[in-house]
Amino acid sequence: MAQQTLITVYDDTLPDENATRRFAQDIAAAVLPGDLIALDGDLGAGKTAFCRALIRNLADDKQLEVPSPTFSLLQPYALRIPVQHFDLYRLADPEELEEIGLFDELDTALTLIEWPSRAGDLLPEQHIILSMDIQDGDARSIRLCVPKDNKIRFERTLAARRFLTSAGYQNANRAHVQGDASHRSYERISASERATTIFMNAPETPPGEIVKDGKSYADLVHRAADTKPFSAIAETLLQLGFSAPSILCADHDSGFLLLEDFGSDGIVDGDGQPIRDRYLATIDVLAALHDKAPTLSQSINDGYTLPAFDRTAFLTEVNLFAEWYLPYRNIQLQPEVQQNFSDHWSNLFDELASAETGFILRDVHSPNLMWLADRTPLRQVGLLDFQDALWGPQLYDLASLVYDARITISADFRQAMLDRYHATRKTPPARRAMDRQLAILGAQRTMKILGIFARLAARDAKMSYLAHMPRNEEYLRDLLGHDALHAFERWHEICPGSGQHN
Predict the structure, then answer these.
(1) Which residues of the chain fall short of a pLDDT of 50?
(2) What is the set of domains in the chain, with CATH numbers?
């Protein structure tokens, strides 16, 4: 086996099989495609039991059949993280590793190898070693050693377990919950005779590449750097009578939050279609929130001040369209055209000076809206993912909902929602001004989203976001037809692009 420098991140004894299963869940929360875990230990040490628990956790299926690959040598699993599980006990010669496909998916799957010593020195130079030894009864001593580059994420998942223990969930099960496109991750935490909770794991935001004026993109658009904004905004929303998750336990220094679990019932049906009544209920929530604007302040709980949706943030976001989306469409802008694009948007920002100002929760769309059927109206919509909230033209959130980036909203239903919003407001804005501001904010947001989705695909290889491109391109074509955006009347020609625009 190739020599490598490893750091021990765990060295302890687990008292029984349930503890070993929970440890496997901790490791499942940290693994990534490309990881290789070599499991050392004698017969009966629990290597297969550990792999079975880890694979079932990744599958979110406690009953998944996970046979030992002793005879087949390899058992693959197509999960949210693909897994290839090897048992090399019967391997006659290390040279057979090529034939059984050990090296085929090392970069794209999690690889688990029992009896790794049979591979000789053919394993990749950098890999994780999990050593398991039999103690008394069902107890097992565990030692986890990882390469230096893996140290932080494995230490973090073990710290998460300590946080859960301190919060009274020492024997809890951890299950992955689909999150967002950020660096945050979410898990559903369950323990016997206790209500399930949601664990938010929000590590410190990486500094990021400097974009402008010595600041990163996250700095320019005022992305939250820690968990304190989430707590402050959640408390404010609760005080205002809306449904935000209660904070059950917090460690802001570590970036750990334990939240009330809103369940899994959202505002779209099983076919991904909008549930009309639930979208309209969300419209009512926005109308009620926006009516409260005169009583609200930019400074909220715990001394937290909402950042302003300023010109820099507005232009930085919309310029993602030119920087990432257009190259995705093989369109390159001449510098003067790109500057002209930015100048037009700067003028549109000035138009928003007369818009109603208040909270911008920022991502009021289907992934962040839960349905709480047993609550009273205005509290039936559970609000999530608002840590990046801003202070600015509050119609932004209305645009976010009626031009839902991930769910197709028909023109007729969009109009019905806008009519509902205007009729429900106690102090409605002038309709013509509202429609004009909504077009500006909707186009700005949609251009930003197209840029972000293109960036996620090109930079981070997250290709699933490309499936949402056609919907948002159609939204943009519709929005650019509004007379508020006459300066961009030609830009619809490039969506989807068929040539160069220069």
Answers:
(1) 1-2, 497-502
(2) 6-166 (3.40.50.300), 265-494 (3.90.1200.10)
- Containing 279, the helix (H) or strand (E) segment is helix 276-291
Q: Token match 């209920």: residue?
A: 281
3-state SS string for 62-83: CCCCCCCCCCCCEEEECCCCCE
d(CA 259, CA 184): 14
- 430: which residues sit within 8 A by CB, 6+ positions away? none
CA nearest 420: which of 242, 266, 273, 282? 282
- How far is 224 from 135, CA to CA, in rounded Å? 46
AA letter at 41: G
What is the C-alpha separation between 161 and 142, in angstroms, rounded? 16
What DSSP line would sit under 111-151, residue for residue? EEEESGGGGTT-S-SS-EEEEEEE-STT-EEEEEEEEGGGH
Which residues neighbour 175 within 8 Å (Cβ) at sequence distance 6 or greater?
Answer: 25, 57, 60, 187, 188, 189, 190
Taking the alpha carbons of 269, 196, 386, 451 in that order, is the dihedral positive or negative? negative
Element (H, E) at 165: helix 151-166
Cα distance from N-terminal residue to C-terminal residue, the chain: 56
Nearest one of 387, 414, 392, 482 to 179, comparing CA atoms: 387
Residue 274: strand, helix, or coil? strand
Bridge pairing between strands 83-87 and 110-114: parallel
* pLDDT value at residue 361: 98
Q: What is the pTM of this model?
A: 0.91
